[in-house]
């Protein structure tokens, strides 16, 4: 019996890596394929990725983005994934330098300049300030805490414990640990759905930058260093939070192939 093959492209944005599948003509996967998507993302038995993204037709935008975590479940917005699917669509010749696309959290716009992709995130109207952490939603929920040095933080153990705290149930939260430097911020993120530390998290660094800006109201952009590379977050403070938020950084193709199942 011949196996079905799924054409795919692998992209990464500052080390956050994704399997991208063009479903504009043929539907290869859907929401019921959780086990298969998890297998594709598995780093030993599949292609290996932090998530899988479907590129689909949309009636009023250039395309639609449907994002699944590495566990196979459809999830909330992924910032680096959004930048990678923009790079993918650009290389498919779907638009010039500017595009709009629909994601689970609404309509986004993006700009491409070489390997650099700038993605407009959703506006943020609420940032919870607690004694030891901030909590906000930048398309996905994020816990943000600041530390004198990240060398003292066990990102996996501490992140996993916070991710499953009762206060964040039933869906849990992503967890970001942040160190302030003269150049900006260093951010390490434990991502739910991946259930591990990732090299970078787009919605996470956005949350870290906005949390930092709460007590630094003069800021309009923040440079971020992650284990996977450098990002920048631009934003405009407003009377109700933050508007005009842009996540900026590289997004590059790694390879392409066919997955047989």
The global form is globular
CATH superfamily of the largest domain: Diaminopimelate Epimerase, Chain A, domain 1
Domain count, please report it.
Answer: 2
Q: Radius of gyration over alpha carbons? A: 18 Å
Helix and strand string, N-terminal first?
Answer: EEHEEHEEEEEEHEEEHEEEE
Mean pLDDT: 96
* Share in β-strands: 35-45%
Largest sheet: 17 strands, mixed
Helix amount, in percent?
A: 10-25%
- Catalogue the unreliable spans: none
Indicate the CATH topology of the largest domain.
Diaminopimelate Epimerase, Chain A, domain 1
Structural class: alpha+beta
Rounded to the nearest angstrom, the distance between the terminal CA atoms is 11 Å
Instruction: Please identify the top-level CATH class of the largest domain.
Output: Alpha Beta
The second-level CATH architecture of the largest domain is Roll
Number of strands: 17
Tally of DSSP helical segments? 4
Could you please describe the fold and organization of this structure?
This protein is of the alpha+beta class. It folds into two domains: 121 residues, Diaminopimelate Epimerase, Chain A, domain 1; 123 residues, Diaminopimelate Epimerase, Chain A, domain 1 (Roll), CATH 3.10.310. Helix content is 16%, strand content 44%. The chain has four helices and 17 strands. It has a 17-stranded mixed sheet that branches. It is globular, with a radius of gyration of 18 Å. The model has no long low-confidence stretch (mean pLDDT 96).
Any chance you could write out the topology, listing elements then pairs?
Blueprint: E1 5-13, E2 16-22, H1 34-41, E3 51-56, E4 63-69, H2 79-91, E5 98-103, E6 106-113, E7 116-120, E8 127-129, E9 134-137, E10 141-147, H3 155-163, E11 174-181, E12 184-191, E13 196-198, H4 202-214, E14 221-226, E15 229-238, E16 241-250, E17 252-260
Parallel strand pairs: 2-3, 4-5, 10-11, 12-14
Antiparallel strand pairs: 1-2, 1-17, 3-4, 5-6, 6-7, 7-16, 8-9, 9-10, 11-12, 12-13, 14-15, 15-16
């Amino acid at each position: 019996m011949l196996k079905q093959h799924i054409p795919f492209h692998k992209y990464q944005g500052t080390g956050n890596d994704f399997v991208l599948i063009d479903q504009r003509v043929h539907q290869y996967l859907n929401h019921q394929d959780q086990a298969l998507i998890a297998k594709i993302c598995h780093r030993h038995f599949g292609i290996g990725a932090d998530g899988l993204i479907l590129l689909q037709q949309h009636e009023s935008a250039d395309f639609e983005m449907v994002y699944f975590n590495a566990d196979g479940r459809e999830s909330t917005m992924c910032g680096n994934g959004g930048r990678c699917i923009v790079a993918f669509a650009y290389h498919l010749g779907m638009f010039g330098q500017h595009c709009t696309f629909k994601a689970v959290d609404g309509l986004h716009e993006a700009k491409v300049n070489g390997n650099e992709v700038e993605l407009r995130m959703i506006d943020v109207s609420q940032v919870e300030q607690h004694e030891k952490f901030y909590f906000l939603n930048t398309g996905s929920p994020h816990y943000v805490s600041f530390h004198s040095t990240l060398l003292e933080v066990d990102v996996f153990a501490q992140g996993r414990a916070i991710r499953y705290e009762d206060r964040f149930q039933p869906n849990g939260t992503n967890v970001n640990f942040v160190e302030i430097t003269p150049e900006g911020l260093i951010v390490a993120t434990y991502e739910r759905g991946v259930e591990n530390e990732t090299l970078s998290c787009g919605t996470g660094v956005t949350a870290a930058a906005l949390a930092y800006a709460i007590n630094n109201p003069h800021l309009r952009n923040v440079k971020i260093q992650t284990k996977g590379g450098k990002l920048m977050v631009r934003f405009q403070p407003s009377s109700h939070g933050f508007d005009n938020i842009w996540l900026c950084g590289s997004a590059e193709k790694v390879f392409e192939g066919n997955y047989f199942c």
